[in-house]
Description:
It comes from Paenibacillus albiflavus. The chain is mainly alpha-helical. The chain folds into 3 domains: 3-57, Multidrug-efflux Transporter Regulator, Chain: A, Domain 2, CATH 1.10.1660; 76-137, Orthogonal Bundle (Multidrug-efflux Transporter Regulator, Chain: A, Domain 2); 140-247, Globin-like (Orthogonal Bundle), CATH 1.10.490.50. Helices cover 70% and strands 3% of the residues. Strands 1-3-2 form a 3-stranded antiparallel beta sheet. Strand 2 (32-33) and strand 3 form a beta hairpin. The radius of gyration is 23 Å and the shape is extended.
Amino acid sequence: MAMKVKEVADLVGISVRTLHHYDEMGLLTPDETTESGYRLYSQDNLDTLQQILFFKELGFPLKQIKDIISNPSFNRQEALELHRQMLLDKRRRLDQMIDTVDATIQHHKGEITMTNKEKFAGFDFSQNPYEEEARERWGNQKVEQSQAKLKNKSQEEQTKMMNEMNVIYTRLAELRHGSPASEEAQAAIQAWYDYLNNNFSNYSLEVFKNLGQMYVDDERFTKNIDKFGEGLAVFMRDAMNIFANQQNK
């Protein structure tokens, strides 16, 4: 049975404003909207919302969650199993933090003496390991496939492909100060789309768009792409997004 936005908000314990925001950013769009403008959420929508909240609990930014769950290779059952493992890991770290807090209280009371190392047990400010795991499963799959195919080609073939890629990137770099929606920019990004599909794998428009977002989200991509011209990664992201949306019309 479909549920209205207020009913979903009350069921989950989040605000109506939050659900509206998810809808506006394309993260969670209800399957149905009545003639009166009421959002109606299906059971599938609720299952997706659960996935979103699991990822959010584990520290993923909303933009990254959107990229993950919109990826064609995303598998809900696999994600649930990953969520469980991640939450168990998080619980172990929280238990360690609680032990550190308890020990620190005893230390301040003079009941025990703590070393400086013990005072910081449980703290971890490294990159979110859950995000890295998710990117490996659902965000970087096409990139890994492409790299594997490239290694299987001869040196001559690789050189030819690199030269073709450099020509495309150089052309895009020349256009990066203009509009990514211009005919010239879209023709150049079409060449990039064709290049990827002809040489590596079948890139759907959605995956192509997600790849463009990765150019900006992953600093390794940004650094390499921007060698052709500062701001090129962002320009390509925008041009790829426009291309994919136009082709879907």
